[in-house]
Amino acid sequence: MKKGETKTEVIQPAETALTAGRDNIVPYININQAGYRTLDVKTAVFRDSGLDTSFDVINTKTGESVFTGNITGAVKTVSARETVAYGDFSDVTEPGTYKIKAANSGESYEFVIADDVYDGLFADAIKMFYL
User: Fold this and answer.
1) Do the beta carbons of residue 98 and residue 111 sit within 8 Å?
2) Closest Cα to residue 51, out of 108, 88, 105?
3) Cβ atoms of 50 and 83 closer than 8 Å
4) pTM for this predicted structure
């Protein structure tokens, strides 16, 4: 290459659409990652939910299912190009660390159920502004 010339490499042709496969977007189960208080309403959102009809709440300490629920209320969201549905697990009130698991949707991030789950959030939010 001569001085002043630039080299152009084509990584992906412009006419080829960039796509993200199902395996690249994780998780397909959304929960409140800040956690839930013991008596809160607890709902998981299942994205592209047509694959599952039920889910389990797994205690991460024991690996055991503590609750099995139904996935209901499927709604097609045009803007997100997804069908989402909901799973209520409000009956789980025992403090601990859990995750949601469904056969095709995979696993959610871990979350905590405890009455003091939100105690540190205000301080953390304020620190975000000056640290």
Assistant:
1) yes
2) 105
3) yes
4) 0.75
Contact status, residue 116 vs residue 38, Cβ threshold 8 Å: no
Phi, psi of 18 (to 5 degrees): -80, 130
Both structure tokens of 131: 């640290």
Tens place of pLDDT per residue across the chain (131 aa): 566 665 555 454 555 554 445 455 568 999 999 999 999 999 999 987 667 999 999 999 999 999 999 999 888 888 888 889 999 999 999 999 999 999 989 999 999 999 999 998 888 888 888 76
In angstroms, the Cα distances linking 56 to 60, 89, 127, 129 are 12, 9, 36, 38
